């Protein structure tokens, strides 16, 4: 395999190093998110306003000239060329018509899926923790004497709750 074939294969792979490099920056993740929401190509000026809005947690109308200019410059000089080399976006006429590629859409869907999976896991761990704490409190108030098996279940539940809390705190 030649060097150019390897480079092409790396960019075509959804998990290539350059894709990880792209996703390592919040501004570029915002660009992917915004382009996924677009049905039509978008120009760099509009994209810069929307990214600045997300970065500063303000509406587009509240963004200052300096905030917009800073994002525009970063997109123009650094972020968009890197994203285009990674095959996540494409552009026509300079940066007048920017759109997401199929690979970019696939990566964004994976990111959205990871967020959803993380939220589901957190709910599960909180529920396990609540169950364990409930069993612990039940034994604290001598419920254990009413049902002998509660002591064992209480120990297991408390252990699971500690593991779940530890996992959520270390994420």
From TrEMBL:
Pfam families to which the protein is assigned, alphabetical: DUF7344 (PF24035)
UniProt keyword annotation of Membrane present: yes
InterPro entries for this protein: DUF7344, WH-like_DNA-bd_sf
Keywords noted in UniProt: Membrane, Transmembrane, Transmembrane helix
Source organism, top-level taxon: Archaea
Domain DUF7344: 20-92
Residues passing through the membrane, by range: 123-143, 149-169
Keyword GTP-binding: no
Protein name: DUF7344 domain-containing protein
Species of provenance: Haloplanus aerogenes
């Amino acid at each position: 395999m030649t060097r150019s074939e390897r480079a092409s294969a790396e960019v075509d792979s959804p998990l290539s190093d350059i894709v990880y490099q792209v996703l390592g920056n919040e501004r570029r993740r915002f660009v992917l998110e915004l382009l996924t929401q677009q049905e039509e190509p978008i120009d760099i000026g509009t994209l810069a306003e929307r990214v600045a809005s997300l970065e500063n947690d303000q509406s587009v109308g509240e963004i200052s000239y300096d905030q917009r200019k800073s994002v525009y410059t970063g997109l123009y000089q650094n972020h968009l060329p890197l994203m285009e080399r990674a095959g996540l976006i494409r552009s026509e006429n300079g940066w007048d018509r920017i759109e997401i590629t199929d690979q970019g859409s696939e990566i964004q869907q994976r990111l959205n899926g990871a967020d959803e999976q993380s939220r589901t896991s957190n709910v599960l761990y909180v529920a396990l923790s609540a169950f364990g704490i409930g069993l612990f409190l039940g034994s604290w108030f001598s419920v254990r004497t009413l049902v002998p098996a509660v002591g064992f279940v209480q120990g297991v539940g408390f252990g699971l709750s500690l593991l779940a809390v530890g996992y959520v705190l270390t994420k």
